[in-house]
Amino acid sequence: MKKKLLPFLLIAPVFITLMFQFNACNAPKPSKCVVTVRDSAGNKLLSGIKVKLSAKVTYNGNTTTADLKAEGVTGSDGRVGFTFKNPCVMDIEATVGTCTVNPGQHVYCTGSGIVKCEEGKTAEKTVRIDH
Questions:
Q1: How far from chain centre, in Å, is Cα 47?
Q2: Does residue 10 sit within a domain?
Q3: Using CA atoms in the order 56, 82, 34, 47, what is the torsion angle rounded to 10 degrees?
Q4: DSSP class per residue in 18-41
Q5: I need a surface site. Which of 51, 56, 67, 71 has the fewest CB within 10 A?
Q6: Contacts for 41-47: CB closer than 8 Å, 24+ residues apart
Q7: Quick check: is 63 in a domain?
C-alpha cells in the first residue's frame, strides 16, 4: 500500500501546481491607439496625412529615438490605427505631404502630440494641422 501511495504523493502536488499555472497565466492583450488628424480649427478631417509614432528616450540630457516605431497614413475618415504588443508611450508626428499654408515655414505643415497605449485598451488622440 505504501509503495502505491508514495508515487501519488510525489506526482499529485506537481500536477496540481501545473494546473494552477496554466489557468492563471493570461497572455498580455495588445495595446491599440487611434490618431485622428484635423485642421487647425478642428472642423475638417484630413486624409492622406503621414503619421509617425516613435518612442523618444532622454538619458543624461541626451534624447534619442528608441527602436519602437510605427508609421501610417490617415484614411478618408482622418484616422489611422496602430497596435503594439506591449503598453507604451509614443510621440506623434503628423506631416502634410504638400503644405499650402506658408510653404516656407514647416511649422504649419506638421502636428504633434503624445499618446499612452495601455494593455487591452484603445487610446484615441487628435492632432491638428494647418493645411
A1: 20
A2: no
A3: 100
A4: HHHHHHH--PPPPEEEEEEEEETT
A5: 67
A6: 42/126, 42/128, 45/74, 45/77, 45/78, 45/79, 46/74, 46/78, 46/96, 46/129, 46/131, 47/74, 47/75, 47/76, 47/77, 47/78
A7: yes
Cα separations in angstroms, 129 against 7, 35, 49, 76, 125: 71, 13, 10, 16, 13
> First and final CA of the chain: distance in angstroms?
85
Whether residue 125 lies inside any domain: the answer is yes
Task: Supply the pTM of this predicted model.
Answer: 0.72
- Which grid cell sits at 43? 472642423
Rounded CA gap, 67 and 65, in Å? 7
CATH number, domain with residue 41 = 2.60.40.1120
Identify the residue whose cell numbers are 489557468.
Answer: 23
**For residue range 60-119, what is the model confidence (pLDDT) as tens digits?**
888 888 888 999 999 999 999 999 998 999 999 999 877 766 655 555 688 999 999 999
